[in-house]
Amino acid sequence: MTDDHGRENPSKELRTGNVAEETCSVANHLQYHHINTLTFTSLPSALETMAGPSRRRRHHVDSSSSESIAAHSPESGVKPAKHHRSRNLTVSRVMRFCLPRPTDRRSRTTNRLPLFGNLRPYAGDNASWLQERLWELEVRRFIQVVNGTEDMLVPVLKLDSDEIIHYSLTRQNSKKLQVLADRIRAALHVCVIDDSLLLERLPDNTRPSKRFSESYWALRQAWGEEDDLPGRRQRSDPDDISYQEYKAKRRGDTAEDQHRNLDDFELEQCYYLVDQVTATLVLLAVRGRDNDYWLVVVLACLAKLSTKIKFLVREFSKNVAICFRNSKDHQDTLGPEHFRDDDAQQPLNDNSPTHTRYRREVEVVSGWLTDCFIRVLRGLGAQNPRSARSGSVDICTIVYPAGIAGTRTLLCQARNGEVSGSPGLIPVAFASNSITIIDKLSSILSSRAHIPPPGDQATDETMSDRSKSASKGSDEPETVLVVELERHNEDVDGEQRFNHVRRRLTIRTLFDFVAIATCLSLCHPEVGIGFQSSLQTISALSAFEEPEDHEYASTKSAAPTRSDVPTEHTPSTKSGTAFYAFVNLWADNAEGGRPTDTLSSLSNSVIAARRHNVLDRQLPPLNHARVGTSATRNPREVIAALNEAQEKRKRLENIIRKWKIHESSIVVECPDFVVRVSLFSAALVLGGLACGFFVGERITGVDPFNLTMFSWIIAGFVILIAKSVRVSDWTWRDFLFRQVTCRTVKEVADVVPGLDEQDILCFLLSSEIRSTLKTRGPFGGVFYFSPTDGGFSIDVKPNLQTLWAAGVIPVMVQTLEGPVLRFLRLVSGYNGHTSVEMSGQCVDCVCKNPPDNAFDVTSPEEGQIDEAVVLFERISWMKILGVYNVTGVSFR
C-alpha cells in the first residue's frame, strides 16, 4: 500500500517467510557482482540469508578474492587505509537515509518525504520488502569500496573465464559493449522520469524539471518515436506505444537485436558495468570530500540508482512500457517557461523544512550521479554520433599551467569528439583524483601484461584460424593508454623539484578498457562542476560538519606546506600543488582521422606537445609526431621546460605586481628611467651654471651665461623627448611621481624593458573577466567583452600561441558556410560555455574561413603571416573537426 506521496507503508505481511518464496522468481534473474572479485553471488541466497538472522552470509569467491573482501570489509576488524580518517559510516545510517521513517507518531512531517528509486511500478506489491533488501546489498558493497583502495577496481584475472569483460578488445566485442552501454543509458532515463514525476506530484513543486523532458524524449527516440512533421515518418498512435518493443537504434544492429531483451549472460555483463561505474564513483566521492554526511547521501542515492538500473534491464521492454504508461499525462512538450530553474531555488539551511531539505539533497546528488553515468556510458560507446568511425577511440585529458599565474587548467576531449575544459579549482581537483586512480590502475594492469588474455568464447574461430589470421596480420586497431604526470614535490632538503613519470600500456581486454575509460570519462569538467554544485547544496548544513585542515587544501589556490597536509595524502588531490598530466586512450584506426597541419585531435595538437611551457612561443617543427605514439621524451627535457616556464612566470608576476590597473590605462612605475633622465638633465643644467661661473670674462665679447641658458634648453628638450618617445601623453605629475600611464599594449612594452608584447596580451586575456580594465580595438576581436570607447587599446595582434598560453583554445567546427573557429575560453571567472559539443548553435566570437597552413613560418615576417578575422555572430554547426593548429596566425 502507498500513501498520497507514492511512499510505501511497510506491512507485517511483507515480513513473512512467504515473501521470500514469492520474490524468488524475480531474484533468480538478478545477480550482483562484487567489484573486487569476478564471482557473481545469486540474490536468492543473499535474501534468504538476510531473512534469517541466525544464518551467516555466504560469498562464493575464490581464495585470493576472499582475503581481499575480508581485508576491506567493515566487519573484519581490519583498520582502514592510512589515507582515510576514522568514519561514522555504517549500513544502518545509510539505510535510514534510504528509508526515512517517522520517529514521532504525533509528527507527520516525515510522512511527506518522497520515496525515490521506487520499484513499486515494476516489482508489484512486494517491492517494498524487495527493494529494501537490494539497497542494503548495494550499501554493503559501497562501504567495502569506501574502506578499500584502487585495487578493488581490478578483479582477479581468471584465464578460464567466459565473461565478456575478459574478451580481447576487438571491434566486434566493442560493439557488444556499446549495446550494453546503450541499454543501461536507457534505464537511466527511466529512473530520471520516475523520480521527476514523483517530485512533480509534491505539493510544493508545481513545475517539472528539465531533466524530465530531456530524458523522456531521449527515451522515446530510442524507443522508436515517429514524428508527424512533413517529410518524416508518421508518428504511431500514443496508445500503441506501450505495446512496442524497445529499439536500441545502434548502427549495424539487426532488427532482431533491436527488439529483444537481454539474455542472462548479457544481464551479468550489465550488472558488472553498473558495479564498476558505481565503485569508481564511490572512490572519487570519498576522495573529493571525505565527510560522513556527504558519503551517506551519495551512497544512499547511488544504491537506489544502481538497484533500479539492474532491475529495469532485466525485462526492459515491459518496464519501458510501464514507464510510458505512467507518464502518459506528461508527454506533451512544454515550453521553457514551464520548467523549474533549479539554480533559482532558495539555499538550504538548518531551518529548512525536513521535506524540502531531503528532497533537495536527493534531487541534486542523484542528478549529479546520473550525469556521471551518462558521461561514462558515452565513453564506453553509448550514443555514438553519426560522424564517429567504427572502432575509433580517442579520449584525452590534459592538465597544464595557463596564463601568467600558471593556473592549473583542465582540457578534455571525449570519445564523441566534444572538447571541454575548466580552470575551476574543484573541477580540476576532481579530475586530478581520477587521473591518480588511472595512474595506479595502469601500474596494476602493467604488472599482469605478460598474462595472455583468455580466449574469446563468443566467436567460433579455432586456434588454427587464429594463428593463420595472425600470420596474415590483423586489422584490429591497437588500443593504447599513455599517462604522463609531472608533480612538484618537496625533497629531503626542502627544495621543490619536478618529478616526471610516463607510462605506456596496451589495452588488451574489455575489462582493461572499461576500468580506464570509466575513470577517464569522469575527468570531464561537467562532472567536477556537478560535484561542486552538490557540495554547495549541503555544505552549509550543520550535519555536514567542519572539514579538516587537509580537506581545505583541496580547494586552496596556494600550495600547502608540509605541515599543513599529512604525507599520506597524494599531491594530486590538492588543486594548489603543481600537478600536471597528459592522459590519452586511443585506438590507431587506419580508416582516417590522421592529423593535418591545420587541425587535429587534442592528443595530436601542438598544445599537447608544448603543454609543459606554453609561454615559450618558439614554433615547433612542422609535422610534429603524435604525442601518444611518439618515442619517450627525455625526462630531463621535460623537467627543464617546466623549470623554465616557472621561472618566466615568476619574472612576469614580479613585473605585473607593480602595475596599477585602472579602467582605461595601466600605470607602470619607471623610477630608473626617470632618475636617469633627471640626472642627465641636471648634469646639463649644472654644467651650464659651472660654465657661466668659471668662464666669466675670459672670453671677450661672450656672455658665459648664454651657454648656461643653452644648456638649460638642451636639458628641457631631453626631458620632452624622453617623455614622448615611449608614450603619447606623459603628464608632469606622473613624471614627478616616477610613473607612466600607458594606454596601449605597445606603450607598455616600450616602457617595461624585456617585456614581450605577446606576454602582455597573454596577461590581459587570462585576467580579462576579473579585471577592471576596459579594452578597445583595433585588434581586440578575441577578447570577451565588447570594445569600450576610451578604453585600453589593443594595438597588437595576438597569435595562436598567445591564445593557448592564456587559456583560449580555438576549436574548428563544420557549418553550412564552411569551417569556423569557436573559442573555448578557459579563463578564471568566466561562466559561459565550458565545452564545444558535437553539434549545436551559439552567439559568440567566431572566425569564419580561418587560414590554413599554406606557408612556412620557420622565420616569419609581419607581412607573411595570415590574419584571422574574429567577429561576433550566430553560427550553427553539425560536427567538430578538431583543434586548430596553424601556429603563427594572428587574430584581429
Tell me the helix content: 25-40%
Order of strands across the main sheet = 7-6-8-3-4-5-17
* Number of helical stretches of at least 4 residues: 27
Shape: elongated
Unreliable segments of 5+ consecutive residues? 1-84, 156-161, 233-256, 333-339, 455-473, 549-576, 622-631, 854-863
Q: How many β-strand runs?
A: 21
- Overall structural class, as computed from helix and strand content, comes to alpha+beta
Distance between the termini: 68 Å
The biggest sheet, with number of strands, parallel, antiparallel or mixed sense and barrel status, is:
7 strands, antiparallel
Mean pLDDT: 73
Strand content: 5-15%
Provide the gyration radius in Å.
33 Å
Biased composition (Low complexity): 63-76
Biased composition (Basic and acidic residues): 334-343
Region (Disordered): 49-86, 334-356, 448-478, 549-572
Biased composition (Polar residues): 346-355
What does this structure look like?
With 892 residues, the chain is of the alpha+beta class. Among the domains are: 393-450 and 474-647, no CATH class; 660-755, no CATH class; 795-891, no CATH class. The protein is built from 27 helices and 21 strands. The strands form 6 sheets. The chain has a 7-stranded antiparallel beta sheet, with helices on both faces. A hairpin with a 2-residue loop joins strand 15 and strand 16. Helix 8 runs parallel beside helix 13 (316-326) and helix 22 packs antiparallel against helix 23 (704-724). 42% of the residues are buried.
